Amino acid sequence: MVSMRCAACMTAILALMSSTAQSASSLVHYTSVSKSANSIDLKYEEGWARITAYDTGIFRVQVGVKGTKPVSGDGYAVVGRKWEDIPLTYSEYLNRIEIRSAELSISVVKSPFMVEFRDQAERVLTSSAPSWNSQYSVSRNTSGEDEHFFGFGLQFHKLDQRGLYRVIKTNADPPFDNGMAHASDPFFYSTRGYGIFLNSTGYSHFDMCCTVADQYTFSAPDPTLDYYFIYGPTFRDISDRQTWLRGRVQMPPKWGLGFWYRMPSKWKSDLTIDTAKEFRSRNIPCDVIGLEPSWQTGSYPCTYMWNKEFYPDPAGYVKWMRDNGFHVNLWEHEWVSPMSPIYNDLKTNHLFADKKAMGGAVPDFTLQKTRDIFTKLHIDEHIKMGVEGYKLDECDGSDFSTNWFYPDDTQFPSGLTGAQMHNLTGFLYNQTVQEMFEKLGLRTYLLLRANFAGGQRYASCIYSDYYQLEQYVRAQATSGFSGFLWCPELREAGSNDEFLRRAENMCFAPMAMINAWAGDEKLLPWKRDKSVEDTFRKYVQMRMRLLPYIYSAFWQMHTTGLPIVRALVMDYPDDKATYEVDNQYMFGESIMIAPLIEDTSRKIYLPNGTWTDFWTDHIYEGGHIIDYNAPADVLPMFVKAGAVIPMGPVMQHVGEKPVNEIELNIYPGEGSFIFYDDDGTTTAYEDGKYVELPIKVTSSSVNISKAKGNYLTEIKTFAVRVHGKNAGNERVPFGEEKEIRF
Question: What's the pTM?
Answer without folding.
Answer: 0.95
